[in-house]
């Protein structure tokens, strides 16, 4: 299974910490998983320190931002 987690957080706390933990668990189970983060966040450094593959510099349009800011619907 291949998993790409999209995160809208700017730091390794809250939902981003949960996504990081999920990526680590998936990788430990033998799956391919990485984290995608927005521009200007501190997550790439946190991912590097934790050994989590990270795709940085993600630029999301208004529609994608709305999806990520509606946690009550997910």
Distance between the termini: 21 Å
* Helical fraction: 25-40%
Report on the biggest sheet. 3 strands, parallel
> Which class of secondary structure composition applies to the elements?
alpha/beta
* Rg (C-alpha, Å): 12 Å
Q: Give the overall average pLDDT.
A: 79
Shape label: globular
**Can you count the beta strands?**
3
Low-confidence stretches: 70-74
Any overview of this molecule?
- There is one protein chain.
- The chain is α/β, with parallel strands linked by helices and 74 residues long.
- 39% of the residues lie in helices and 23% in strands.
- It has a 3-stranded parallel sheet with strand order 1-2-3, covered by helices on one side.
- The chain is globular and about 30 Å long.
- Residues 70-74 have low confidence and may be disordered.
Sum up the structure in keywords.
39% helix, 23% strand, 74 residues, single chain, alpha/beta, 3 helices, globular, disordered C terminus
């Amino acid at each position: 299974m291949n998993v790409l987690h999209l995160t809208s957080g700017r730091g390794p706390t809250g939902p981003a910490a949960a996504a990081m933990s999920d990526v680590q668990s998936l990788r430990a189970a033998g799956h391919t998983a990485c984290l995608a983060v927005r521009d200007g966040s501190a997550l790439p450094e946190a991912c590097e320190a934790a050994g989590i593959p990270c795709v940085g510099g993600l630029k999301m349009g208004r529609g994608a931002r709305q999806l990520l800011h509606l946690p009550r619907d997910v």
